[in-house]
Amino acid sequence: MQGKHVLVVRPGELGPSEHKTWRQLRAESGAPENPFLDPAFTTAVGRVRPGARVAVLQDDGAPVGFLPYERGPMGQGRAIGLGVSDSQGAVLRPGLGLDPRGLLAACALSSWEFDSLEAGQHLFTPYAAEELASPVVDLDRGYEHYADGLRARSPGFLKQTLAKERRLARQVGEVRFVYDAHDPEALRALMRWKSAQYRRTGRRDRFAQPWIARLVDLLAHGDDPECRGVFSVLYAGGRPVAAHFGLRSATVLSWWFPAYDRDHGRYSPGLVLHLRMLRAAAADGIRMVDLGSGPARYKDSLKTRELTVYEGAVVRPGPGGTVYRLGREPARAARRFVRGHPRLAEAARRALTGAGRLRER
């Protein structure tokens, strides 16, 4: 870090000028305007996570970079919002030369873990343990152009989904969609559906963690055009049957928490909601929808291409780094092995689902 100074602050201590510089640096990088790498997201996480910090890199007193992170025991660090953030990394002046381990030392970190590092983060990609696909939907040429491509790629998908929407209207009641809803009851329903889905599939219930529920509530009430929550709801017969809470910037919508009422599952309300959302998002200036990494059949049907994200960690020599490696590397290696063997991955999925069903009894 010779010639540069690192100032470590809490996210709430950043002022409007630092936010402006952060966003200018993001724009200069040419990376997509993913809201998870906006200062407003880091600030929101800072309000619910006491270990949240930002390393402000300064050159002659002027900010030239920002690294948002969370600090845990023995200096173990992680990307801000790790576990719920779909895009992670540092925001740096193009061409800025840094030693990543030196940066960690300046932050008093023994390690820095990431699970959705965005492509182009050349400071950290050499430390990636795995490369993951993150499907996206391109809407820069409008929804109709996208729908034409969808018909060509999946001839029956769009037709069948629209037919199910008509059946939903006939058998349940009038179908109504709200792109940017303010419906607390529907938001609570979304959280219930999503929690049940987590338990049913044997996964950790994110909404059982108070900080995540508080973070969603904060972002749902935010009004920053560069990073705010968008809550979309599909109603049938006057009741919500599917919903999604996502995060948006001026041009990118990040898919975050989608769920639906399983009592209406035969109508595929989640897919109906997705198509309605894509149309409304395109009309609202969204040019790309980031569906996030992780396998899902509906993502394969909807996507137009894939971005690359990375999982891994920068680890410094020393006791803290050793503790990190012993605690995290075996689990990561096991997940990587399972992902690389489709039959084993399917068996693991069935086992998790079976465990989830046992917990529901």
Automatic annotation (TrEMBL):
Boundaries of every BioF2-like acetyltransferase domain copy: 159-299
Q: Does the keyword Acyltransferase apply?
A: yes
Q: Which UniProt keywords apply?
A: Acyltransferase, Transferase
What's the EC number here?
A: 2.3.1.-
Q: What molecular function terms (GO) are annotated for this protein?
A: acyltransferase activity
Q: Does the keyword Transferase apply?
A: yes
A Pfam family in this protein?
Answer: Acetyltransf_6
Q: What class of enzyme is it?
A: transferase
What is the protein name given in its UniProt record? GNAT family N-acetyltransferase
